[in-house]
Amino acid sequence: MQQLRPYQTEAIDAIRQQWASDQLDCLLVAATGAGKTQIFLSLLADELDRNPTARALVIAHRQELIDQPIERMRQMRPDWLGAGTLDRPRMGIMMGAHNAADRQLTIATVQTLASEKRRQQLLAAGPIDYLVVDECHHATANTYMSLWRELRAANPAMRHLGVTATPQRADGEGLVKVYQTVAHKITIADLVKQGYLVQPRWLGISTGISIEGVHSRSGDYVASELAQKFDTDSGRAIIVAAYQKYASERRAIAFTASVAGAHDLAAAFMRAGVSARAVDGTTPKDIRASIMADFRAGKFQILTNCQVATEGFDAPGTSCVLMCRPTKSDSLYIQCMGRGLRPALGMAQPNEDCLILDFMPADSRNVIMAGDVLGLPKEITRAVLKDTAKDELEPGMVQAGFTFDGDNFNSSGTPMEIIHRELNYLDQSPYIWGRREGLLTLPLGVASDNNERIIAIAAGQLLGLKRPRGSFDSWQVAPIACDDPYQTAQELADRHAVKALTSKGAGWHNAPASDPQKKYLRRLARRELSPAAIERLTKREAGELITHYQVRDAIRDWGIDV
Question: Would you kindly state where each structural domain of the chain is located, as residue ranges?
Answer without folding.
Answer: 6-186, 193-426, 429-558
